[in-house]
Amino acid sequence: MSAPVYIAGTGVITAIGNDTAANLDALRSGSAGMGPIRWLETRHQGQLPVAEVKSSNEMLAEKAGLPAHFSRTSLLSTIAAKEALQNAGIPDLGKWRTGFLSANTVGGMDKTENFYPAFLQNPAAGRLREVVHHECGAATEITADELGIQHYVTTISTACSSSANSIFFAARMIRQGLLDVAVAGGVDALTRFTLNGFNTLMILDSQFCQPFDENRRGLNLGEGAGYVVLVSEKVAATLANKPEVQLSGWCNANDAYHQTASSPDGTGSYLAMQGALKKSGLKPGDIDYINLHGTGTQNNDVAEGTAISKLFAEAYPPMSSTKSFTGHTLGASGGIEAVFSVLSIQQGLIYPNLRWETQMKELPFAPVTTLQEKKVEHVLSNSFGFGGNCSSLIFSRIN
Amino acid sequence: MYIRSAAAVSPQASFEALFTGAAGYQGEQLSCIEPDYTSYIDPKLIRRMSRIIKMGTAAAVESLKAAGLEQPEAIITGTAYGCLADTDAFLSRLVEFKEELLSPTAFIQSTHNTVAGQIALLLKCHRHNNTFVHKGFSFESALLEARTMMGENEITTALVGGVDEIIPASHALLRRFGLYRANGDSLRLVNEPAKGTMAGEGAAFFVVDTQQSANSLARLDALQTWYKPSTPNRVADGINALLAEQGIEWKDIDLIVAGRNGDTGDDALYDLFKKDIPETSFKQYCGEYPTATAFGLWLASHILHEQRVPGVEGLKPRRILLYNHYQQTHHAAYLLSAC
Amino acid sequence: MEQLMQTLKEQIIRQLNLNDKKPEDIGNDDPLFVEGLGLDSIDALELIVLLQQEYKIKLANAEEGQTVFRSIRTMAQYITDRQAQDAAAS
User: Fold this and answer.
1) What residues in B contact A113, CB-CB < 8 Å?
2) Within a 10 A sphere around the Cβ of C90, how many other Cβ atoms?
């Protein structure tokens, strides 16, 4: 058995709050973050609800300590990653080999789409500073530079499962002795590109989404960033606040069924959850809470639900989709939900699946609809995406 | 980690062609010589695939075939820019039609993990599937993940690849940053340093294995990256440390495969490592792009396996140092030995 | 109707990149999905865009496509009916 990897800190920014404390308050009080589009400039304003971070780029830039013309992606990423490192409070960080392992799906697209109209007219036109941070890796480097992290940087992009993958790649690097400290998770800002992309797939709900409900109509897009600070046992020993949670299991599996659609029986989801349990050495009955991928689309919820009903048939743990609060934040969702999973163990909370009304006829279980306070030892968090990418993480209390 | 096979779709037809007559390109860029994709990819899948997806999939299938492996235990790709043609198509239409009448296919295919996802779909491979998108570290991250998975005993084999494409819009943009020389001649790119390089593209895939097999091409002894080193000497020190870890010295290196791209500023860094060791380079064959080291590793692997070096007669290297940097920000060193 | 069906075949081949198909390969009553032409859920969305772009017809939801896109004939019939309705309404 390799060395454990501890969670030393969390940082998060979403439509329900600009930091961990604010997110926790909203999760406790059941306040969803969706609303009419305010900051994103799009013709869909007034038609599609989204879960925007409630700040302009100028406000975010001030908080991040970066120029306001930087991509919203890099601003959100920097704010949450800074919070995570502060929260971890690692003394003498400079002496450790620290990495920043992030994830996103569209990088600086929010700026590129401002650049493109002029560029399409004339390839010599358009301000280059609008595209210089287009690549997915650019937001990662802006944040890493701001945090002073140099030892290792990378970025993962596997659509909606991106940041779950960055978290367990970080864990492996620590276990293999390649890093001592890793800030890992992901980010995505709302863009016209993704909003219109999901709109062409006809899976956006024009009302607030209802994950795992028989009458669900689709997803609401959201934005944000979520990071956890992973540390080795050696680093954990130096911390004033002893970590309570460790990353105990993970698995990435592929559905290999269709480019976008999930297989009806949720093969990939099943394999990911089963693999994570195996890695952690836990049994299905040990899981106290499942943070569902739960986008609210017809296809995802039935596939994920079917996989859960196969794996957990003996006793269904409480489960909910916190996308009913934050919307679907794409490349950020795995990171944000990792933070929520850690908080679930630390605070003894199981979050409600908001707006749930009607039992899905295909499933023998229902999500939790009201806040529950109880001891939580092990949380399973699911993140699935296009390309058949399915990843599951398990967080456990350190005993 | 052993390199069991290496296959590339690149501006060169084959490793053999580098001896019999390497393809040369004039102007600002080198373009891939593409195979007949219908022999690699199911026609039902091919109709939606843009060029980069076909390039990546063909290189992946070819490398699996060469390794005699049907199902890898992991599929890990690196791509800095992702599926540019689909991204450009969706974005252009979004602008032109003012967010109306958009077609879903370009959006779906634009996600960075499309190449890895399509390979999984083609192979019906349910195992680990990941895509790294970090500029000049995209491919190195993919290899590093394979290494950590082997270290955790999660896998023994992986399909790992690096892929990037040039499209007219991306080239028009990148040239505005002053990266390219106007009248390049690719085969003389490295020998005639000037301001600017030539743009390149390609897909190179590898089957890597914890075990040596009868036809392993090479052994990857070490891989290290450096991000924005404060001084070039930090990389030099790092490489010295890497050699020391392996218990070898500079004199044990038979050949340096350098990522020289002909740009005077960029190439100055390679001179810092200039030792009394034979050196060859690879960007005269593939051009400059963020995942060009995948092509460099393809070249180095075949050199070690076939014991011959394009452009250098009589040299039979047993140990190679592959060193590359991308825009002086992303540095990578690979230490390889013959099997 | 015959003319419309011929045009639809050409438009579908173009929109869906069915490079190995010619209009005469597609029968008017052949199923377009799964066992017939082998189209899938992404193609259904593409056909919705095609209807909107070429015929100014907007489907209310993706499910409606399942009946409309059964075959070339059902598509042509749907277009003809919608156009007649629109003409009557205006």
Assistant:
1) 91, 94-95
2) 5
Residues from chain B contacting residue C15 (CB–CB below 8 Å): 103
H or E segment and range at residue C72: helix C72-89
List the CATH number of the domain containing B42. Answer: 3.40.47.10
| Catalytic hit among A160, A209, A251, A390 | A160
Which run of H or E residues covers position B63?
helix B51-67
pLDDT tens-digit readout, B107-122: 999 999 999 999 999 9
Two structure tokens written together for A223: 């934005």
Alpha-carbon span A292 to A11, nearest angstrom: 20
> Is the same domain home to B198 and B249?
no
* DSSP state letters, A308-344: HHHHSTT-PPPEE-THHHH-B-GGGHHHHHHHHHHHH
- pLDDT band at A2, cuts 50/70/90? low
A293 is catalytic: yes
Q: How many separate domains does chain B show? A: 2
Architecture of domain C2-89: Orthogonal Bundle (1.10)
Question: Does B48 contact A259 at a Cβ distance shorter than 8 Å?
Answer: yes
Same domain, B116 and B167: yes
The model carries a pTM of 0.97
Contacts of C52 in chain B (CB under 8 A): 101
Map out the domains of chain A with their CATH numbers. Answer: 6-236 (3.40.47.10), 245-397 (3.40.47.10)
Residue window 5-44, chain C: list those with CB within 8 Å of chain B.
Answer: 15-20, 38, 42
pLDDT digits (tens, 9 = 90+) for C17-31: 998 889 999 999 999
- Kindly determine whether residue A117 and residue B95, on different chains, have CB atoms separated by under 8 Å: yes
Residue B291 and residue B245 share a domain: yes
Structure tokens at B68: 């005699």
Which tens digits make up the pLDDT trace of A143-181? 999 999 999 999 999 999 999 999 999 999 999 999 999
- Inter-chain residue contact C45 with A201, CB threshold 8 Å: yes
Last residue in a domain, options B176, B209, B242: B209
Residue B117 has its nearest CB partner, among A112, A120, A259, at A259
Q: Which residues of C touch B54 (CB under 8 A)?
A: none
